[in-house]
Amino acid sequence: MLAFSSSVSVEEVANATFEDLTPARLSSTVPIVFRGLIRDWPLVKAGQQSASHGADYIRQWSNGKPVQAFEAPHEVQGRFFYNEQLDGFNFKPKNTTLDRVLDEILASINDEQAPCSYLGSTSIDHIMPGFRQHNDVPALANAPLVSIWAGAQSRIAAHFDVPDNLACCAVGKRRFTLFPPEQLENLYIGPLDFTPAGPPASLVDFYQPDFARFPKFKLALQHCSIVELGPGDAIFIPSMWWHHVEGLAGFNVLVNYWWRQVPHFMGTPMDALNHAILSIRDLPKAQRENWQNMFEKYVFSPMDTDHIPTHRKGILDPLDEQRARQLRATLINKLNR
Prior knowledge:
Layout: E1 11-13, E2 32-34, H1 42-49, H2 51-59, E3 66-72, E4 79-80, E5 92-97, H3 98-108, E6 116-123, H4 124-127, E7 145-151, E8 154-159, E9 164-171, E10 174-179, H5 217-221, E11 225-229, E12 234-237, E13 242-247, E14 252-259, H6 269-279, H7 285-300, H8 321-335
Parallel strand pairs: 1-2, 4-8
Antiparallel strand pairs: 2-12, 3-5, 3-6, 6-7, 7-14, 8-13, 9-12, 9-14, 10-11, 10-13
Helix pairs in contact: 1-2, 2-3
């Protein structure tokens, strides 16, 4: 269990309905909990009968397409993470089917020595066509990615997502431990280019934090929020908020919606960070400071461009799809040198 308690409360909407998902709330800069938001989903009602009822409801939508799941030995107690040497991971991927993953999860409920099986971030529209006709969030029906996560008791290291996220607890119980983006320095983030699941992740074990190795984590705890979700509850997690996620029941199913508040043609900020590491980070200090000023003027606090004729502002004007395509082509040409 967690070795600490919550320090900061999170706004909660009791007896939430889909009408409570206003544009203002779906663009909030702080997390919001929506109690009971998806309580009428058939999946939620099936899961409340039993784990097997919930699994059977999911099975009826499966199209049999292969999925990639993950398996960890029981010794790691559901913590999907790096190995001790940080040169690999304590779990292994496996190509399987949704039905098999569900069977393995259910079989492990009464077997403490069984490996922990976990299905993470798998597109619902790809493997469960028809499911969202009966289990969906209308305000986010056009979200670019809607995923299912299923597993036994498990925990995923604190990480951030670039998109905004509405995470819906459909079966079982979930605990989210949240930190605002500015706690980056105090969370001891691991490698950017070698990660357990895509985003960079905190190296701190939240069950047994090593304060001698990670002393500033005590500062992060002064800003953390802990939220537990039951069947039917949901939480909005803004872009860049760090979140450590635990599945607390023997069988847990979460459905989440990811979207960004910018047009689809916009680039991915992590690509820009990687490019900046490639081209700016190792410059001499004076040059780095000069480029820091350029970024401040052209990116973070866009400078006045009234002195440039309108027809020559180019990418200094707000981007549209055509300019974005041209800029992307220019970058590709320069990177392929």
